[in-house]
C-alpha cells in the first residue's frame, strides 16, 4: 500500500509595492499598493496583512488588519490619533504564512487644539491687563499662535475684538492694552495651527482700574482777607467711579515749586476752600487737580488733569488795578482786593478759626445724628460656613485652582458685602483731620476709641484714629490704629493708659521704600514724657524677625505710686517685606503666637498697628483669632470673621494678596503644628537629627524638610 506525501508550500518571498500613502484627515490614513509578482507567492495567494502603530510605541502595541482578497489594492485606516506619525506595514500571505513586510511612515493631519490652560490676569491697570496662560495640553499640530478675544461685558455691546499673539511659548504672557478705564471685560483665548482654530479657554472676567479725572474748572478766586484767598471750583466733567480727593496747588511768583493742600471730595458739584497764611502784595498762581482712589489697591490714588492756572494779586490797598498780560481784565477786576479788606479779614478769620484749623482745609458738615446701618455686635460663627481643620487643605487648594480664581471671587464678594455707609464724622471734622495719617483711612464713629476728657480741653480732644475690634469669642479684644504721628503721640500714650493696654503689636518699619510709614513714638533710650504719660525704655531684645521692647509707663497725674506705673511690651515685627507679603508664613505664625500669648487675661485690648492700621493690622488680627478658633473648635472661618470686623474698621486686610496669605499661613499652622523646641529638649532634639538611622528615609526627609523651612524663613 502506498502512503500519500504532503509537501508544505514555502512562505511568500515577494513584497507588495506601496505606491501611495498619505493622511486624508487628522484621524485617517489611506494607502495604495501593487501586488508582488505571482511567482513569488509560492502557492495560493490568500490576501494581505496590514499592521500599524505610533512610531514611539513598541511592536507589542501594533494593531492588525487582515484583508482576505488578493485583488484589493487600497485601504483606509481609521480612528487614529491626531497629528501622530504611524509606521504602516504591509505583507502578503499564503497558506504557509506571511511574506516579508514593506514599512512606510505616515503622519496624520493636524487637528483642533485643545483650550489654552489656566488663563489668568497677572496684573490690571486702567488700560491694560497682563495675561498669562499655558499651552494646550493637546496642541494636535504645530501651534502658530493664539487669538486673544475680548469684549465689554456690562454695556450690552457686542463689540468683540481680537488680538493675535505670534511665536507661541509653553508659558505665554501677553499685555492686552488700549482698554477703557473702569470697565468690565470678558476675555478668552484660542490657539491656532496652520489649518485649525482651537477650542476656547475659560472665560476670564475682569474690571479695569480707574484713572484720574479730567480737569476741574475754577469759577472763583478772590481775596478773602489780608492773608487769605477764597477759591471755588466745579467738579470735573469726566471721572471714573467718583472723585475722592482734590489737591489745590498754589505758589507765589517768587517760589520755584507749588505748595499742595489735600481735601476729601463730596458729592457736591462745586467745592470751596480758603487758602490761609499768605503774604500781602504778592501775586499768587493757583490750580486744582482731582484724584480717584484705585479700586484694585486702596492705597493708590490716581491724580487727574490740572485745571487752568488762575492768578490773583493779594493786595492790602486799592491803589490801582494790577495788570498782567496773562490775566484778562475781568479776572484782574475780580481778584484785586479793595479798601475794606480789613473788614473781610475779621470775618474770614472767624470762619477760618471755626472750620479750617486742620491739615485739610475742607468745608464740612458737622457730625449729626445720622443713623448707622444695623450691625452685629459680636461675631456669630454659624452665620457663615466654617471649615473643619481636616478639610482646610482641600478648601485652600480649591481657592488656589485656576490661578487663584476662587480667592479673587471670594475677596470681591467680601469687598461688596462690606461696602457699607458707616459714618466717620469725627474723622472728617476740620479740627481732627490733621490727626489722620491718610485722608482715606478713617475711624468709624460707632467703634472709635473715645479718649477721656481732661480739664481745659475741647470736646474734639477725645478723638484718635483708632477702633475697637472683636477677637475670637472676645468683644473688643484689639484696638486697630494707625502708626502714630508726632502730633498724636500724647493721645496715643493716653489711650494706652486709659485702656489698660499691656501689649502693642507694631507691623511696620519707620521708613519703607524711602517713605515715612510711622513715627518713632517711644524713647530711643532713657525716659520721655508724652503729655501726662512718662515712658521709660527698660529693655530692648532684638531677634531674627522681630524686636521686643519693654516700657515702664507712668501717669504723672496719679499720686499713688503703686497705681501710677505699669509695664507695657511692644512686639515689633521687622521682617515684613516693603512690598507684598512674606515669602513664608512660619516667622509670622511664630510672632503672632508669642505676642498674643504675652497678653495677660486681665489686661485691656491689644493695640495692633501698621502704617494705616488696616492691611497688616487686619492680617494679624484674623490670624490670631483663627488660630484660637482652631484650638478651641477645630474649625476656621476667615471669610465670616473678616466680614464681621470690617464693620468695625475700614479696609481691614487691604489686599487680596494678604487674604491669600492668611489662608496659606493657617494651612501651614495646621500641617506643621508647633515647631518650637523648648530649651530643656533642645539637646535631645539636635541629637535626634544627627543620629538619624541609616536607611531610615523618613528621618532624612524630616531633616530635609526642616532645613528647607529654615532656608525659606530666613531668605532675604
From TrEMBL:
GO terms for molecular function: protein tyrosine phosphatase activity. Residues 15-111, 115-211, 212-319 form the Fibronectin type-III domain. The keyword DNA-binding does not apply. Keywords: Glycoprotein, Hydrolase, Membrane, Protein phosphatase, Signal, Transmembrane, Transmembrane helix. Residues 407-669 form the Tyrosine-protein phosphatase domain. The chain crosses the membrane at residues 327-352. It is a single-pass type I membrane protein. PROSITE patterns: FN3, TYR_PHOSPHATASE_1, TYR_PHOSPHATASE_2, TYR_PHOSPHATASE_PTP. GO terms for biological process: neuron development. GO terms for cellular component: membrane. It is found in: Membrane. Residues 583-660 form the Tyrosine specific protein phosphatases domain. Pfam families: fn3 (PF00041), Y_phosphatase (PF00102). InterPro entries: FN3_dom, FN3_sf, Ig-like_fold, Prot-tyrosine_phosphatase-like, PTP_cat, RTP_Phos/Ushers, Tyr_Pase_AS, Tyr_Pase_cat. The keyword Signal applies. This is Protein-tyrosine-phosphatase. It comes from Rhipicephalus microplus.
Amino acid at each position: 500500500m502506498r502512503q500519500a506525501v504532503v509537501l508544505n508550500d514555502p512562505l511568500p518571498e515577494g513584497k507588495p509595492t506601496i505606491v501611495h500613502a498619505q493622511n486624508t484627515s487628522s484621524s485617517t490614513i489611506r494607502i495604495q499598493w501593487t501586488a508582488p509578482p505571482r511567482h513569488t507567492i509560492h502557492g495560493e495567494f490568500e490576501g494581505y496583512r496590514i499592521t500599524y502603530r505610533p512610531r514611539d510605541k513598541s511592536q507589542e502595541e501594533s494593531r492588525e488588519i487582515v484583508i482576505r482578497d488578493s485583488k484589493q489594492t487600497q485601504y483606509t485606516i481609521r480612528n487614529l490619533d491626531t497629528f501622530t506619525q504611524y509606521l504602516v506595514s504591509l505583507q502578503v500571505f499564503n497558506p504557509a504564512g506571511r511574506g516579508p513586510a514593506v514599512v512606510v511612515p505616515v503622519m496624520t493631519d493636524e487637528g483642533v487644539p485643545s483650550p489654552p490652560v489656566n488663563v489668568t490676569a497677572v496684573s490690571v491697570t486702567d488700560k491694560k491687563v497682563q495675561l498669562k496662560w499655558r499651552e494646550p495640553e493637546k496642541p494636535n499640530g504645530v501651534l502658530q499662535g493664539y487669538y486673544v478675544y475680548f469684549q465689554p461685558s456690562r454695556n450690552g455691546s457686542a463689540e468683540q475684538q481680537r488680538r493675535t499673539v505670534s511665536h507661541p511659548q509653553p508659558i505665554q504672557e501677553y499685555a492686552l492694552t488700549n482698554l477703557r478705564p473702569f470697565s468690565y471685560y470678558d476675555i478668552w483665548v484660542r490657539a491656532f495651527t496652520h489649518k485649525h482654530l482651537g477650542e476656547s479657554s475659560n472665560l476670564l472676567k475682569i474690571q479695569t482700574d480707574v484713572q484720574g479725572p479730567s480737569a476741574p474748572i475754577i469759577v472763583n478766586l478772590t481775596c478773602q482777607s489780608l492773608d487769605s484767598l477764597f477759591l471755588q471750583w466745579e467738579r470735573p466733567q469726566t471721572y471714573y467711579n467718583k472723585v475722592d480727593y482734590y489737591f489745590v496747588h498754589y505758589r507765589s511768583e517768587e517760589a520755584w515749586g507749588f505748595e499742595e493742600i489735600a481735601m476729601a471730595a463730596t458729592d457736591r458739584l462745586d467745592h470751596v476752600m480758603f487758602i490761609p497764611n499768605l503774604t500781602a502784595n504778592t501775586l499768587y498762581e493757583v490750580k486744582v487737580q482731582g484724584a480717584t482712589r484705585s479700586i484694585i489697591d486702596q492705597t493708590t490714588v490716581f491724580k487727574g488733569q490740572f485745571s487752568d492756572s488762575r492768578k490773583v494779586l493779594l493786595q492790602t490797598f486799592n491803589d490801582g488795578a494790577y495788570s498782567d498780560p496773562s490775566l484778562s481784565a475781568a479776572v484782574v477786576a475780580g481778584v484785586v482786593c479793595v479798601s475794606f479788606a480789613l473788614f473781610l479779614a475779621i470775618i474770614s478769620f472767624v470762619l477760618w478759626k471755626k472750620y479750617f484749623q486742620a491739615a485739610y482745609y475742607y468745608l464740612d458738615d458737622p457730625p449729626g445724628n445720622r443713623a448707622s446701618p444695623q450691625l452685629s455686635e459680636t461675631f456669630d460663627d454659624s452665620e457663615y460656613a466654617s471649615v473643619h481643620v481636616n478639610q482646610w487643605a482641600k478648601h485652600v487648594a480649591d481657592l488656589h485652582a485656576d490661578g487663584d480664581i476662587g480667592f479673587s471671587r471670594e475677596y470681591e464678594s467680601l469687598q461688596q458685602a462690606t461696602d457699607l455707609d458707616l459714618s466717620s464724622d469725627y474723622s472728617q471734622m476740620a479740627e481732627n483731620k490733621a490727626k489722620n495719617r491718610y485722608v482715606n483711612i478713617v475711624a468709624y464713629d460707632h467703634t472709635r476709641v473715645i479718649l477721656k476728657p481732661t480739664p481745659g480741653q475741647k470736646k474734639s480732644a477725645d478723638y484718635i484714629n483708632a477702633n475697637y475690634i472683636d477677637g475670637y469669642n472676645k468683644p473688643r479684644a484689639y484696638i486697630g490704629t494707625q502708626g502714630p504721628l508726632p502730633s498724636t503721640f500724647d493721645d496715643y500714650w493716653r489711650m494706652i493708659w486709659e485702656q489698660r493696654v499691656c501689649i502693642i503689636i507694631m507691623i511696620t518699619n519707620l521708613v519703607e521704600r524711602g517713605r515715612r510709614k510711622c513715627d518713632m513714638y517711644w524713647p530711643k533710650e532713657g525716659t520721655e514724657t508724652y503729655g501726662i504719660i512718662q515712658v521709660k525704655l527698660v529693655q530692648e531684645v532684638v531677634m531674627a524677625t522681630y524686636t521686643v521692647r519693654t516700657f515702664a509707663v507712668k501717669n504723672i497725674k496719679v499720686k499713688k505710686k503703686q497705681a501710677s506705673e505699669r509695664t507695657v511690651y511692644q512686639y515689633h515685627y521687622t521682617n515684613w517685606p516693603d512690598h507684598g507679603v512674606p515669602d513664608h508664613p512660619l516667622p509670622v505664625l511664630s510672632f503672632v503666637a508669642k505676642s498674643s500669648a504675652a497678653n495677660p487675661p486681665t489686661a485691656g485690648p491689644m493695640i495692633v498697628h501698621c502704617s494705616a492700621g488696616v492691611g497688616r493690622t487686619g492680617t494679624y488680627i484674623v490670624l490670631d483669632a483663627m488660630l484660637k478658633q482652631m484650638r478651641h473648635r477645630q474649625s476656621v472661618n476667615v471669610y465670616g470673621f473678616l466680614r464681621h470686623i470690617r464693620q468695625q474698621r475700614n479696609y481691614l486686610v487691604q489686599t487680596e494678596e494678604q487674604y491669600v496669605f492668611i489662608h496659606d499661613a493657617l494651612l501651614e499652622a495646621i500641617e506643621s503644628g508647633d515647631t518650637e523646641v523648648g530649651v530643656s529638649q533642645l539637646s535631645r532634639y539636635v541629637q535626634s537629627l544627627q543620629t538619624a538611622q541609616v536607611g531610615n528615609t523618613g528621618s532624612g526627609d524630616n531633616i530635609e524638610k526642616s532645613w528647607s523651612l529654615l532656608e525659606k524663613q530666613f531668605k532675604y
